[in-house]
Amino acid sequence: MPVITCIDDLKRLHARRTPRMFYDYAESGSYTEQTFRENVTDFEKIRLRQKVAVDMSNRSIAGEMIGTPVTMPVALAPVGLTGMQSADGEIKAARAAEKFGVPFTLSTMSICSIEDVAAQTTAPFWFQLYVMRDEDFVDRVLDRARAAGCSALVLTLDLQILGQRHKDLKNGLSAPPKLTIPNILNMMTKPEWCLGMLGTRRRSFGNIVGHAKGVGDLSSLSSWTAEQFDPQLDWTKIARIRDRWGGKLILKGVLDVEDAQRAADFGADAIVVSNHGGRQLDGALSSIRMLPSIVRAVKGKTEIWLDSGIRSGQDVLKALALGADGTMIGRSYIYGLGAMGEAGVTTALEVIRKELDTTMALCGERDIRNLGPHNLLVPKDFEGDWA
Q1: Which residues are annotated as a binding site for FMN?
Q2: What is the band of 215 on the pLDDT scale with cuts at 50, 70, 90?
Q3: Chain centre to alpha carbon of residue 335
Q4: What is the pLDDT of residue 223?
Q5: How far is CA 68 from CA 49, 62, 75, 142, 348, in A?
Q6: Active-site positions?
Q7: SS3 letters for 320-383?
Q8: Domains of the chain and CATH, by start
Q9: What whole-number distance in Å separates Cα of residue 17 and Cα of residue 13?
Q10: Which of 148, 251, 283, 305 is the most exposed place for a label (fewest CB within 10 A)?
């Protein structure tokens, strides 16, 4: 059993144990990948203020996210094709999150269906919606999520048009993978992954195949998905979905102050400051650089969460100290899933929890709710002086 000390340890194992096309799917951004890289490196520009001779006993990092008690303010973000990183991956991740006491979000583009995850867990999970042109499909998937007891809807706003990811095109990404000679040779070096996939019936998009009109098998899936992301998504359509859902609503993909103000006025229970992990608009600013201006604009009007670039508990602390009410992690737990299945997701969460708790203590705080800008040293030009 390898010794895991940080998220990067899990990332290295993930690269060794998962077929290249699925590792690359997780570990890639659009076009030049500038935003993908800066999501991570911009966290490194922020320094922490060490405080000594303070009582560090009886610490608490517990809190709430949209009224849900959490052992730490970290939720598992929606990630497509999670069930291709490890067999039944969404079920494994949801189980790990439930046992740990943090929320799990199921993607529309998951391999395991809403019903699969609901049958294998007891805690309510969140469902993430990509808005499709087919309104009947959208309405029915919302009804299915409600019937499964999903306690919140995460509506992704930044994927009306798919950003190009060069690695996916070069690898011929598909679920399940196409049996080309390069893919077969690569999979032969991943025996545990292959055995897991042979042992499950879940190898395609469980929320779509058999549920969308005209999509009864894999041959019709690719053409449907290529045509279905709705480029006309606007606030009128968001309002229709909100009214149809009728429950708690989280708007994900907000990276602009005006959009944040509109989302808060709209009545969102939370907004997620996110650039889709650098997978959509390459050249956009990192989420952590955009966070302070959005906090100034809408703090107290809606919950503000940060997603994209978190690779440690220290990153979580920096986001919270800059004003975020919560965070979401994607790649950090996917590395764990690809490395060690459910146990790897748990390990990723444990790594982040320990780093968050230790860092908070050494910054002189005992309660995560007391974190603020006073715990940080932020470069004066961090947000940038843009024309």
Answers
A1: 78-80, 107, 128, 130, 156, 252, 274, 307-311, 330-331
A2: confident
A3: 12
A4: 67
A5: 30, 11, 11, 21, 21
A6: 276
A7: HHCCCCEEEECHHHHHHHHHHHHHHHHHHHHHHHHHHHHHHHHCCCCEHHHCCHHHEECCCCCC
A8: 7-124+166-202+274-377 (3.20.20.70)
A9: 6
A10: 283
Q: Are 253 and 157 in contact (CB under 8 A)?
A: yes
Query: What span, in angstroms and rounded, lies between the C-alpha atoms of 272 and 254?
Result: 6
Q: How far is CA 204 from CA 40, 128, 313, in A?
A: 31, 17, 33
Nearest to 85 by CA among 25, 133, 3: 25
Which residues are part of a known binding site for glyoxylate? 25, 165, 276, 279
Q: Are 90 and 110 in contact (CB under 8 A)?
A: yes
Q: What is the dihedral of CA 161, 218, 121, 75, to 10 degrees?
A: -20
Number of residues in the chain: 387
3-state secondary structure of 300: coil
Enter the pTM of the model.
0.96
- Over range 194-208, report the average pLDDT: 94
Bridge partners, residue 250, by sequence: 154, 270
Q: Which residues are annotated as a binding site?
A: 25, 78-80, 107, 128, 130, 156, 165, 252, 274, 276, 279, 307-311, 330-331
If residue 128 lies in a helix (H) or strand (E), which one and from where to where?
Answer: strand 126-129
Predicted confidence (pLDDT) per residue in 287-335, tens digit:
999 999 999 999 999 999 999 999 999 999 999 999 999 999 999 999 9
